[in-house]
Each structure stands twice: as C-alpha cells, then as structure tokens.
Specification:
- By secondary structure, the chain is α+β, with helices and mostly antiparallel strands.
- Helices cover 30% and strands 21% of the residues.
- The strands form five sheets. Strands 1, 2, 3, 8, 9, 10, 11 and 20 form an eight-stranded mixed beta sheet that branches. A six-stranded antiparallel barrel has the order 13-16-15-14-17-18.
- The longest helix is centred in the last third of the chain and has 21 residues.
- The chain is elongated and about 80 Å long.
- Bound molecules: flavin-adenine dinucleotide (FAD).
- Flavin-adenine dinucleotide (FAD) binds next to helix 1, helix 2, helix 6 and helix 14.
- Flavin-adenine dinucleotide binds next to helix 1, helix 2, helix 6 and helix 14.
C-alpha cells in the first residue's frame, strides 16, 4: 500500500499526506461521507486515488500537535475563530463537515474523544498517534496508496484535461489533483511552502505568508520586561496606527487583531494562547514595516466579575482564549475605578491591586506611575488612579518580531480562498485542481480550529473531486 514509486496514472492525486490530504483522499474514496450524503451509489466504478508526500512518513505534524495529544477540533467552531479573505466561503466549507461530524467520524472508527472546559477536543487516550493511525488505517481499508519521498516539484494541465504531476519519485498523470501541501511552519515535518509556488505558477493569487501561533518578541523596556515567568490573563490588541485610550474604549474601536486569554511573559516578549493568537497580525505588521503595537489590558479578564477567575482557580492556565464573541471590551476608566473602589475598603493601593493582579506586575505599575502604593486606596486622587489605569489597561508594548517558522504552529497567508469555488474548493482558474488545508488562506486561532479547517476543507475538496469525476 505504501512505498516509493516511480510514477503512474490515477484518477485523483492528492499532494500532501497531512491532516487535510489524508482526509481529502478518504472523502474522495467515500470512506468519509456524512449520513445525509444522498449521492452515494454502489454501482459507480471505484476511483484510483493516491497520495504523494515529500517525507518518509505521513502526518508528521499530527504527531507533534497539541503537545503530542492532538487537539483535533473544538466543541464550538465559528467563522470568527479564523482569519481569511473569504468569510462566507469559510462558513460554507465549515458547515459541510462540522466539528460534530469530525468527532462522529473519529468515534465511528473507534477513537473516543473528550472535551476540555474551553471546548478543546482531544482523543481520550491523549495520544496523537491514535489520530494518525486511525487515518492511516482508514486509507488502507479504502485502498488509497500513499507514496513517500515523492516531493512534487510541478503540476501542469495538458490540453486533453489530464494533469501531469512531476515529483522526485516519478511523474504522475491524473484527472484531478488536490493540493494539500500545508504551509511553511515546522519545515522538518515536510511543510516547506512548495504548494504556494505551484499554485502561483498555475495562476492563483497567493497572499504573503508569515509564521502564526507563535511567540511574540517585544522591544526591551516595556512594562512586562524583567517579569519573565509570570503567567496572567490579558486582553491583547494589535494596532498598526496607535490609538488613544478614548478611541480604544469607543464603540468603533477595531484593532487589527485581538485576543483574550492567558499570557506567559518570556525573557524577550510574550507567549501563551493570547500572544499566539495575535502573532500572525504582528508578523504581517512587521512584514509591512508597520511597527505593530501590542496594547495589553491586564484588568478586563482578571476583574472580579469576569468569567476568567473561575478558570484561574483550576490547576493550570486555560490553553485557549475566550471565544471572540464573548471577549470583554477594553476596560474603561469608570469600570476600573468602580472595581478598585469596591475592592479597596480600608486597604492600601498595593493591596487593592494585588487582589486582581500579580504582585510583581503591581510593583512595576506603581513604580512606573510614580505612585506610593502604601497609601490608602480611598485617599488616592483620581489623577493617580488614571496613571495606574493607563498602565494596567492600556499598556503599550511595541513588537519587534515573532518566533519564526521553526516554532510556529501555522502559516498565516496562502492561496486566496476567494479564488476557490466555495461549494467544492475547486480552483476557479484551473478546472480539476482543488485545494484544502493550510495551503489555503485560512488561519484558525489556538484550540483545534486549524485541524477542523483541515478536516472540513479536506472533506469538501475530496468529495467534490469524486463527484466531478463521476459526472454528478
Ligand atoms: C507544533 C504544532 C502543534 C500543533 N497543534 C495543533 C493542535 O493541537 N490543533 C490544531 O488544530 N492544530 C494544530 N497545529 C496546526 C495543524 O497541525 C495544521 O494546521 C495542520 O496539520 C495542517 O494540515 P495540512 O494537511 O494542511 O498540512 P500539513 O500537516 O503541513 O501537511 C502537509 C503535507 O504535505 C507534504 N508536502 C509539502 N510539500 C510537498 C510537496 N511539494 N510534495 C509532496 N508533499 C508535500 C508534507 O510533507 C506534509 O506531509 C499544530 C501545528 C504545529 C506545528
């Protein structure tokens, strides 16, 4: 079933044996079909489907995902969990095979799953190898051949409508090709960006790529400098054009990117879910020489009436952000003042603030605001609270870089989704060419959303390739 080949003909060639490619091949073979799929017809001839992969083993990224546990989807997946050029097309694709279908399919293959409090879904075994072996086992049962060390170097469409696929393992001919080559992140897993170049040569617009879901590096001297090791909840906004506190608290405030969740301060910046979720916007800002500014609000999530303290009491920091639709707005001065007054009683300023914020951060804030924290909170003038408020809720942290592709979980950018048919993911430029997974310009936030995109888009592309060849 698997091995090195010298080239051959196939009805469908899938390029890339990652999550999206494996799922596309399975969908093309009808090994994955949702119960309402009325198009199944046992009399149809079986299509020959093969997957070409550059590496020695398929699905390497699945094995390292989720810290080896593979966060394979989320219990709640919405369009605003992603960044893309075509949100309506994204909605259509996610709706064709949703997170429930994902869990049902894996469970039907004997892989039970469970859900963490913030909705992240993992295999019950907590072992990513079980996810991969489920996919490989299904490919074997469906008669799909996987050819290793077949790095595809070019794809062209001949006049007779047959594709020629040149690979280091030989030349293939196919009636349909599904491009599932992933992005550029973690290149040692085989994702080196070749699909972007191939798609561009075939006439597609490919948006610039940056590493995403990666740590953010900050300019030295910001509020968080020298607080390495501190974990705390925060709202992080990315701005390319600096805004005032008033603008940020206004109804029209629209940062380039925003995330509310746990943050870990590192020796050179920030990591943790909220930092990872904004890293793509930071990367694009730096690529465009926009000098991106991260504005941190350490109050909005930590304040007493926020839902976050519930999470904070659990033994580990939540591994994903608050869903965008539930994220609190930037803290206004009135809210901040009302909170500190209700917390203060007869306490000193420092005691009041440490009821919400870590001690080391409070010391840094008071030092920078030049406020004596030993004073009773009730006697501090409004001017001093305003200085504390600005540093606590609108702390400017200029970003100077991100961790790069070696550390990034995904690549932000790729083939314009808007250039693919939203019902089939077939190219609007090259008939018979389809694309799915990370090679397409769709990037999810941390929490299983990128795999869900791989499953949904793999399903749509694979099903469409099959139906196209069956002429339905
Ligand atoms: C460390 C890490 C942890 C992650 N954890 C999670 C998680 O828990 N949950 C989540 O949702 N997402 C996670 N992700 C992201 C997720 O793994 C990816 O979004 C997803 O695997 C993308 O699937 P894909 O099939 O599109 O691409 P890939 O998995 O990158 O697969 C692409 C395949 O194409 C092959 N290929 C590339 N170029 C060629 C070529 N020219 N010829 C032939 N083959 C080629 C590669 O060898 C590779 O096998 C993580 C990523 C990383 C790096």
């Amino acid at each position: 079933m698997t091995g090195i080949h010298t080239g051959s003909d196939a009805d469908i060639v899938v390029v890339g044996a990652g999550a999206a490619g494996l799922f596309a091949a399975l969908s093309a073979s009808e090994a994955i079909a949702i119960p309402s799929d009325t198009l199944r017809d046992e009399r149809r001839t079986r299509l020959s489907i093969c997957i070409l992969d550059a590496t020695k083993r398929p699905g390497l990224k699945i094995l390292v995902s989720g810290g080896g546990r593979c966060n394979l989807t989320n219990a709640r997946v919405e369009v605003d969990d992603f960044v893309t050029d075509a949100p309506r097309a994204l909605k259509s694709v996610l709706g064709a095979f949703d997170h429930r279908s994902t869990r049902e399919w894996f469970e039907s293959k004997g892989l039970s799953t469970y859900e963490e409090p913030q909705g992240k879904v993992f295999p019950t075994s907590d072992d990513a190898r079980d996810v991969l072996s489920t996919l490989i086992g299904a490919c074997e049962s469906a008669g799909i051949s996987i050819h290793h060390e077949c790095e595809v170097t070019d794809i062209s469409l001949a006049k007779d409508g047959v594709f020629r696929i040149d690979s280091r393992g030989g030349t293939w001919r196919a009636r349909s090709v599904i491009l599932a080559t992933g992005g550029r992140s973690l290149p040692k897993t085989g994702s080196m960006g070749a699909g972007f170049e191939i798609a561009a040569r075939l006439g597609h617009t490919v948006t610039p790529q940056v590493p995403a879901l990666v740590n953010v590096r900050l300019a030295p001297g910001g509020l968080t400098a020298e607080l390495a090791g501190l974990t705390l909840p925060a709202r992080l906004d990315v701005e390319y054009q600096p805004t005032s506190i008033e603008q940020r608290c206004g109804r029209k405030y629209a940062p380039v990117s925003s995330a509310c969740g746990s943050v870990l301060v590192t020796h050179d910046g920030l990591t943790g879910p909220a930092a990872l979720d904004i890293s793509g916007a930071v990367g694009h800002g730096i690529r465009r020489s926009e000098k991106p500014l991260v504005v941190a609000d350490f109050w909005s999530l930590a304040r007493p009436t926020s839902a976050w303290p519930e999470f904070a009491n659990s033994d580990k920091a939540p591994g994903a952000c608050v869903p965008p639709s539930e994220a609190p707005s930037p803290t206004t001065f009135d809210t901040f003042l009302a909170d500190v007054r209700s917390l203060a009683g007869a306490s000193a300023i420092v005691t009041t603030l440490t009821r919400v914020l870590p001690k080391s951060l409070v010391s840094r804030i008071l030092e920078r605001a030049t406020v004596d924290g030993r004073k009773p909170a009730s006697t501090a003038p409004e001017g001093e609270w305003r200085k504390i408020y600005a540093l606590t809720c609108h702390s400017p942290l200029p970003a100077i870089g991100t961790g790069g592709y070696d550390k990034a979980e995904v690549t932000d950018g790729g083939i314009l989704l808007g250039e693919l048919d939203r019902r089939t993911l077939e190219s609007t430029r090259v008939p018979g060419l389809l694309a799915c997974g990370e090679v397409v310009n769709v990037t999810g936030r941390l929490g299983g959303f990128n795999f869900q995109w791989a499953w949904s888009s793999g399903f749509v592309a694979g099903t469409a390739a099959r139906e196209r060849l069956h002429g339905t």
